[in-house]
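Section 5: illustrative case.
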């Protein structure tokens, strides 16, 4: 791998990466599901440092995530540059369906999103032939109509990308080697060929990448003799589930493949607390076919995030559950105030804002004032899987909710300011401890930190929850009004 490339590229849940190069600038988009703002755009010039520069979906009208089931919402963008503008095609799953957004610059503002009602599927790709014909190639997992949930392979249709009109009936194209869930198609023109790259095998441990080629963007395509050209399945590689990616030419002429993968942990390496993250690997063309190298993990990166709530606007890292952070919380003079309507963390519409958990060993804390309400710090995977430290009346309650099971530990609230915290600590792999990490839930007392509970972390992992996201850690208000000060996150470890 090129010496300075770093893996993961984007820590914390950031699946389905799509990348575009314009001159010396690289832009990358990932999926956000039920969270807003949606569809982050990251920018880099050296492919080492990536900065979050904005989001495509910055109003509740862009994506109809308010009422989608968890795991629905923004799936699998394709980011492209054509005719002096940026294009992003995406599925708002169970929401607005297939959409195309455009922008003059990827930091925004983006257009309102043009529906493509003739495409009933996921993972839409956009490609233009030299005569200007626009092809949308997608995975025909039916999200609406008769046969919801059925999967008809990869399909393609010619479209007018400006109006969203389909210009012919969709037709099937090459759909892989026969592994399950052919998805994530991207079309590339290279040295006289059109290449159709897809993922297959499902987004779990069988995830793979396969490629085919033809002389027309509409096919027919013949599969590579070496398919699948990438998979970590049945290997001891530290990054598993590798697949669903996009190809780009690096500054030094090196082809690079940006893709999703999971850092798995535990005695049998079975659990991924951060879900699917973005990785990169090198690739090359050999005899007219693409070769992709296995994904290597580079040295652990440490990181920190803090917010003193002095600025009236949210830093771009904050995510709101089914609503924009600014519509859920008010920031003023060092305080973040949330107002709850009775929905706790077990509700799909909890009043919750948080950041992606990016590391394995982490510590997060926040001061909480619940004199007028109930709330605290929570680590959420989904509404069925979350751990919290809550202040309520004269009590501090640690709570672990896993599917239909829930357990609580409570103490009398210590005197003074209430600073609640959560620590995640990697478990040393071995047969004595099969889990990925333990989560310690606590509160500061007058004589130092007080541990309320130590909870097994495996239940907040991609494998236990079957959610498409990852852990998000942040603050919530169940009822009344709760005010927070000085949010702090530090993390390290792969
Ligand atoms: C996405 C599909 C997949 O649409 O998971 O891994 C879905 N790939 O391609 C949601 O991220």
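Designed sequence:
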């Amino acid at each position: 791998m090129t010496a300075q490339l770093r893996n993961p590229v984007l820590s914390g849940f950031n699946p389905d990466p799509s990348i575009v190069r314009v001159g010396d600038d690289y832009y990358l988009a990932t999926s956000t599901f039920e969270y807003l703002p949606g569809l982050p755009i990251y920018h880099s010039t050296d492919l080492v440092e990536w900065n979050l520069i904005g989001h495509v979906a910055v109003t509740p009208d862009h994506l109809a995530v308010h009422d989608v089931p968890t795991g629905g919402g923004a799936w699998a963008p394709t980011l492209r540059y054509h005719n002096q503008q940026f294009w992003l095609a995406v599925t708002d799953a169970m929401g607005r369906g297939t959409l195309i957004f455009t922008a003059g610059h990827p930091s925004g503002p983006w257009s309102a999103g043009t529906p493509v009602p003739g495409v009933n599927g996921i993972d839409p790709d956009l490609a233009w032939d030299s005569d200007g014909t626009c092809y949308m190639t997608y995975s025909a997992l039916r999200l609406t109509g008769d046969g919801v949930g059925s999967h008809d392979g990869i399909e393609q249709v010619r479209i007018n990308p400006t109006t969203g009109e389909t210009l012919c009936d969709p037709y099937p194209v090459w759909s892989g080697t026969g592994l399950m869930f052919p998805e994530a198609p991207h079309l590339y023109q290279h040295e006289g060929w059109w290449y159709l790259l897809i993922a297959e095998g499902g987004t779990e441990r069988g995830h793979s990448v396969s490629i085919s080629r033809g002389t027309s963007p509409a096919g027919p395509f013949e599969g590579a003799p070496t398919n699948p050209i990438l998979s970590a399945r049945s290997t001891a590689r530290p990054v598993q589930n590798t697949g669903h990616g996009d190809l780009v030419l690096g500054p030094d002429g090196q082809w690079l493949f940006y893709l999703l993968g999971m850092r798995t942990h535990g005695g049998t390496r079975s659990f991924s607390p951060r879900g699917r993250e973005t990785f990169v690997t090198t690739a090359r063309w050999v005899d007219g076919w693409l070769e992709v190298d296995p994904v290597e993990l580079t040295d652990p990166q440490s990181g920190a995030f803090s917010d003193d709530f002095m600025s009236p606007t949210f830093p771009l890292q904050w995510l709101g559950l089914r609503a924009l952070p600014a519509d859920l919380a008010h920031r003023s003079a060092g305080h973040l105030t949330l107002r709850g309507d009775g929905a706790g963390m077990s509700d799909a519409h909890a009043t919750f804002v948080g950041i992606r958990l990016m590391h394995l060993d982490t510590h997060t804390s926040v001061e909480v004032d619940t004199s007028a309400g109930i709330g605290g710090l929570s680590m959420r995977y989904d509404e069925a899987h979350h751990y919290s430290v809550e202040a309520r009346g004269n009590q501090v309650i640690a709570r672990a909710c896993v599917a239909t099971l829930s357990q609580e530990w409570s103490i009398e609230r210590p005197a003074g300011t209430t600073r609640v915290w959560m620590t995640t600590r990697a478990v040393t792999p071995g047969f004595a401890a099969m889990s990925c990490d333990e989560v310690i839930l606590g509160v500061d007392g007058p004589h130092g930190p007080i541990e309320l509970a130590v909870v097994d972390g495996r239940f907040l992992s991609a494998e236990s929850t079957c959610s498409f996201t990852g852990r998000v850690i942040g603050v919530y208000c169940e009822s009344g009004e709760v005010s927070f000060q000085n949010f702090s996150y530090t993390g390290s470890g792969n």
